[in-house]
Amino acid sequence: MNLQVRAFFHTQTSTLTYVIHDPLTLEAAVIDPVLDFDGASGRSGTSFADQVIEYVLATKLHLKWILETHAHADHLTGAQHVKARLGGQIAIGCGITQVQSTFQDIFNLGDSLNTDGRDFDHLFEEGDSFSLGQIEGRVLATPGHTNDSLSYVIDGNAFVGDSLFMPDAGTARCDFPGGSARTLFQSVQKLYALGDDVRIHVCHDYQPGGREMAYVATVREHKKANIHIKADTLEQDFVQKRESRDKTLDMPKLIIPSLQVNIRAGHWPAPETNGVVYLKLPINRLDS
């Protein structure tokens, strides 16, 4: 039997969380879980993550992995909440150490942040493998959007984070610290080389033109119709288009809280002497 895939859509951040499992052993992984967060009030919640947890429990799955495709800048990860309820190892790409070092400086976090990735249970490198029961998967480093971006390739499916959106939305931005449009072009070539029938599962869908939400397209469909990078797109043309578009984009609404939590694998900063957790707002450090 083939890998089973269930997608959950977090409408506030247009994020896809996936639960994947081996139907024989019921070993499962959750990919890119989301924590509810209101930036204006500073209030967090678990309603969305609880829907994912309830599905795992109702389906009697055994959670082995909580897989992050990268340290997201547009939503807070729900990894710690999922782990507390279901267990599993929280994993991310080894490039997270570069991301941690970058934002340790931007947020002036000093020794309050470990920059060796130890907050995560496991760091994946290019070519590493993982398993869900009898189904083997492998890890593909796909940086460009961020230093730590990677894709999980398993049983004809590729969960690519923000490297690709749906074909009518193109690719993710590359102007965050450590991002590179040229590097993303090379990463997409690796994804396109997986085979035309491989199903690309995206982490976000912003529903361009008001269409219905969609989250999966084949490599063949991307190579034919992706508005930023088709099979015959030249590197210099992609870089010019991507960099020009990035100059027009505002920063994500939740980038400030998201990064401070996500580089810690979903842990909040330590409470201060009054027992309250605070997040920093750096002034004039992040470009708009």
Q: Give the CATH superfamily.
A: Ribonuclease Z/Hydroxyacylglutathione hydrolase-like
Question: What's the number of extended β-strand segments?
Answer: 15
Order of SSEs: EEEEEHEEHEHEEEEEHEEHHH
* Estimated structural class: alpha/beta
Question: Alpha-carbon distance between the termini?
Answer: 48 Å
Shape: globular
Please list the strands of the largest sheet in the order they lie side by side: 1-2-3-6-8-9
What is the second-level CATH architecture? Answer: 4-Layer Sandwich
The first-level CATH class is given as Alpha Beta
Report the total helices: 7
**Please, how many domains?**
1
How many whole angstroms does the radius of gyration measure?
18 Å
Largest sheet: number of strands, sense, barrel closure = 6 strands, mixed
Poorly predicted regions: none
Q: Per CATH, what is the topology? A: Metallo-beta-lactamase, Chain A
Mean pLDDT: 96
**Fraction of residues in helices?**
10-25%
How much β-strand is present in the residues?
Answer: 15-25%
